[in-house]
Specification:
- The protein is α/β, with parallel strands linked by helices.
- It is 31% helix and 15% strand.
Length: 414
């Protein structure tokens, strides 16, 4: 009598329960076929005012001339905005007093209104809630680490990827953010740092550096799917790395663009010739789970997304990050660590780094953090298989650190 043989993965699958993804407290929008609705196109809404950060250097000069001033005033305005992080006419004493207000109004119109701010007890993390010109809400999170200051920025108001665990995706996509709205998050964060509003002193102790007194690292892991707003995100990145005073003078290597797996856009990103860091939010190596966890997996499967990530490395030479939120009994099984390692190693060695991220715990929810020993085993297995893996240091639990939580609460309060 023949005996049934089971693969090691199948043996391990039966060892622990499998929790299925599901929405809690909201209904996931569906298309006509009953699948989770995906929104790639931005809804039509009134555009934000055109800002200096939306323009090329040449366009800034022409705009200043249209306002009746000589073109060199554009560089002065850029210096105030990109170097001194101000849009306040009173601070721009090198501009002619009689025309200063009109010039600033025409070139630096207000884009973000701070409606709420939460800070950790240590003061090393600040979460901002911004209201855009049309009332849409977005968030950004500012974090001080030894030797660097990181800002998590939003690229869309809302999100159209409809992931069931994501607070941002619950309301769908409101609209794409403009290039300047993305940049303004950094400028406002730099202004807060300069005003001493972020805890710590880089000149005292530890590994903090004196030159870390502005945002040094950007992660596009706030609200929205960055690659669904491709054009404006890339324009914003180019402005970030443009030398001051024409841009923010940041290092491309300190900028991370993340995606849930928009494969054509990943391939396009690889051709931009910008040495930024690319991160794939994978969250499951198997399509059976990822179809439910990341609805865009219905378009591009896990292996297609991993292939595109490897192609990014092959073209750019830049090591790729794999983001993996560890969720208790849902995607944190040891066999999934082994399968992930197998898939990554099948494409080569040295091209990827895995960042497991402990989910913020929510008691009683299916969306809660893995047990510490489970996290440790997941990381151990990947490292043992030769895949460099580091458990992500999470911030902001006490201030609703996951993007979308604060905006959702604010909309409920209104």
């Amino acid at each position: 009598m023949a005996t049934e043989t089971r693969t090691p993965f199948e043996e391990q699958r039966s060892a622990r329960p499998q929790v299925r993804p599901r929405t809690e407290g909201w209904t996931q929008a569906q298309d006509s076929a009953g699948r989770p609705l995906l929104q790639f196109a931005s809804p039509k809404r009134g555009k934000p005012p055109v800002h200096l950060a939306d323009m090329t250097v040449e366009e800034r000069v022409e705009k200043v001339k249209e306002l009746g001033l000589p073109g060199f005033r554009a560089k002065q305005l850029s210096t105030h905005y990109f170097t001194h992080y101000t849009s306040d006419p009173a601070a721009m004493t090198d501009l002619p007093a009689a025309q200063r207000e009109e010039l600033v109004a025409g070139m630096l119109p207000p884009l973000l209104t701070e409606t709420r701010r939460l800070a950790t007890d240590k003061g090393d993390t600040i979460k901002f809630l911004w209201k855009l010109h049309d009332g849409a809400l977005v968030e950004s999170v500012l974090m001080r680490y030894p030797g660097r200051i990181t800002l998590c920025v939003s690229s869309q108001a809302g999100c159209g990827m409809n992931c069931p665990f994501c607070a941002t995706g619950q309301a769908g996509l409101t609209r794409n953010m403009s290039t300047a709205e993305i940049i303004e998050q950094i400028v406002r964060a730099n202004a807060a740092i300069a005003a001493g509003e972020l805890g710590g002193d880089p000149r005292k102790g530890g590994q903090d550096r004196v030159d870390a007194e502005r945002v040094t690292n950007i992660v596009f892991m706030g609200m929205g799917e960055p690659l669904a707003n491709y054009k404006r995100v890339i324009e914003a990145v180019r402005t970030m790395i443009a030398p001051q005073p024409h841009g923010l003078g940041m290092s491309a290597r300190g900028i991370t663009v993340s995606t849930v797996g928009l494969v054509p856009a990943i391939k396009k990103l690889a051709d931009e010739d910008i040495p930024l860091t690319f991160a794939l939010s994978l969250h499951a190596p198997d399509d059976e789970l990822r179809d439910e966890l990341i609805p865009v997996n219905s378009r591009w499967k896990a292996d297609e997304a991993i292939d595109a990530a490897y192609e990014y490395y092959a073209k750019t030479g830049r090591r790729v990050s794999i983001e993996y939120a560890l969720i208790k009994d849902m995607n944190d099984h040891a066999w999934r660590a082994d399968l992930l390692a197998e898939k990554l190693n099948a494409r080569g060695k040295g091209w990827v780094h895995v960042n497991p991220i402990p989910l913020n715990p929510t008691p009683g929810s299916v969306w809660t953090s893995s047990e510490p020993h489970v996290q440790d085993e997941f990381v151990r297995r990947l490292n043992a298989a030769g895949v460099p893996t580091t458990l992500r240091d999470t911030r902001g639990k006490e201030i609703d650190g996951a993007c979308g939580q604060l905006a959702a609460a604010d909309e409920t309060d209104v």
